Amino acid sequence: MVNRDRHDITFEILRKATAGKKKTELMREVGLSYAQSKTYLSVLLEKKLLEMDKKRLFKTTSKGLETLEKCEPCPLFKWNKQKK
């Protein structure tokens, strides 16, 4: 299994939530435990990178999309992570 850092997980959550996802869908697709998802989602909501709509779907905000757009081209986030 490849180790991921906070940035990798955060970007993956923001990418997956662009169409709107339920919490359990995000947990499954990103590969997070309940405790991990609770932590990440609360921070992303607090920072206004994610929002929860009336149907309790998590969606990436315009600020979140802008963050993805600006940060993904950075070569630091494109390192090929090796299996350990």
Oligomer: single chain
Please state the second-level CATH architecture.
Orthogonal Bundle
> Number of helix segments?
4
Q: What's the CATH superfamily, by name?
A: Winged helix-like DNA-binding domain superfamily/Winged helix DNA-binding domain
Helix content: 40-55%
User: What is the CATH fold-level name?
Assistant: Arc Repressor Mutant, subunit A
CA(first)-CA(last) distance = 7 Å
As a percent range, the share of strand residues is 5-15%
How do the helices and strands follow one another from N- to C-terminus?
HHHEEH
Task: Please give the largest β-sheet.
Answer: 2 strands, antiparallel
Q: What is the total tally of β strands?
A: 2
The radius of gyration is 13 Å
- Overall structural domain count: 1
Low-confidence stretches: none
CATH class division: Mainly Alpha
- Broad shape: globular
In spatial order, strands of the major sheet run 1-2
If you average the pLDDT, what whole number results?
86
Structural class assignment: mainly alpha
Describe this structure in words.
- With 84 residues, the protein is mainly alpha-helical.
- It has a single domain (6-71), classed as Winged helix-like DNA-binding domain superfamily/Winged helix DNA-binding domain (Arc Repressor Mutant, subunit A), CATH 1.10.10.10.
- 50% of the residues lie in helices and 7% in strands.
- The chain is built from 4 helices and 2 strands.
- The chain has helices spanning 6-16, 23-30, 34-46, 62-71, and strands at 50-52, 58-60.
- A two-stranded antiparallel ribbon has the order 1-2.
- Strand 1 and strand 2 (58-60) form a beta hairpin.
- The longest helix has 13 residues, at 34-46.
- The chain is globular.
- The model has no long low-confidence stretch (mean pLDDT 86).
